[in-house]
Amino acid sequence: MRRNFYSSEYLDRVSHLRNDSDWLSGQLSNGTSCLLPVWQLHNLVVSGDTVEAAVLDVSQIERLQTNHADPILLGLVDGVAYFTLDVSHIEDPHEHEVLGAAGMFEDLRKVGPYIGHEQGNLLAYARGINYWHQRHKYCGVCGAPTRSESAGHQRRCTDSECNSVHFPRTDVACIMLIYDEDRIILGKAPRFQGRMQSVLAGFLEPGETLEDCVAREVYEEVGVRVTDVEYQHSQPWPFPSSLMVGFRARALDTELTIDEKELLSAEWLSRAELKAITPESDVQLPRPDSIARRLIEEWLAED
Ligand SMILES: [Zn+2]
């Protein structure tokens, strides 16, 4: 099955090597490993007709004042190790001798649609794991500082009695195309920009199955009961730390009762109406790199 954007077909995460200090120090000094710096959750890219990741030689780490953060191993691509490093401590990275010459720090949410699939994955992964480190500098159990270990894939409390280990967190969100014969529900959340409308979505709660979450969110947001909840595919969405799990479900009710705290509006749209959308239309579909867009396009293609 086709992969969603921000996932990778080629990255080998080599989790069995994350605690192999000889292997790691070899990769950090071999002259061929690559570094993807992240500055205040922005990725370093080179923009032209397309956008590409700016990849530094890992030996540049020394010139990036590494006492502020440890390099994080992302994995291997074609046998080459990729690391990321948080350089947020640098006041103006575009004036920095290494970073300024390499590219510009951009928000992946903005440049994602213009970047290649595999690079999109690496940049999203780098951004997501740096976000987690930034937010977990202190132990949630006892409040003592934590330190990075396992090449950046866990943090351990520095209080020897507590010794708690914390793992990178991913927030699961369900996203669902709700259909009734030849039409689907699109809604407009307050955070959506411009005229964009999208399928419904919401976060999984403790003790819930994914199917429960789909049914609850749809009922809460538009007052519709659903059945035939079917998994479609999923997408990493590190903005800041989600996994979007895509579903399709059939509506049992057709009247929409909108929760105005969650949605500004929601409506049923037919295949003909969706296919007639132009850049001038009052309704615009979600961005092309999103699972929301793919859920809609796959349904449209089944006409
Ligand atoms: Zn602790």
Describe the fold and architecture.
- The model has no long low-confidence stretch (mean pLDDT 95).
- The radius of gyration is 22 Å and the shape is globular.
- The longest helix is centred in the middle third of the chain and has 19 residues, at 117-135.
- The chain has 303 residues and is of the alpha+beta class.
- It has helices at residues 21-29, 99-102, 108-111, 117-135, 210-222, 271-275, 291-301; strands spanning 34-39, 42-47, 51-53, 56-57, 72-77, 80-86, 104-106, 146-149, 154-157, 165-166, 171-180, 183-188, 200-203, 226-237, 242-251, 265-270.
- It contains 7 helices and 16 strands.
- The two termini are 20 Å apart.
- It is 21% helix and 30% strand.
- A hairpin with a 7-residue loop joins strand 9 and strand 10.
- The strands form 3 sheets. Strands 1, 2, 3, 4, 5, 6 and 7 form a 7-stranded mixed β-sheet that branches. Strands 11, 12, 13, 14, 15 and 16 form a 6-stranded mixed β-sheet that branches.
- It has 3 domains: 15-132, Nucleoside Triphosphate Pyrophosphohydrolase (Alpha-Beta Complex), CATH 3.90.79; 136-168; 171-301, Nucleoside Triphosphate Pyrophosphohydrolase, CATH 3.90.79.10.
- Bound molecules: zinc ion.
- Zinc ion (ZN) is lined by residues 139, 141-142, 144, 157, 159, 162, 164.
- The site of zinc ion has 8 residues, from loops.
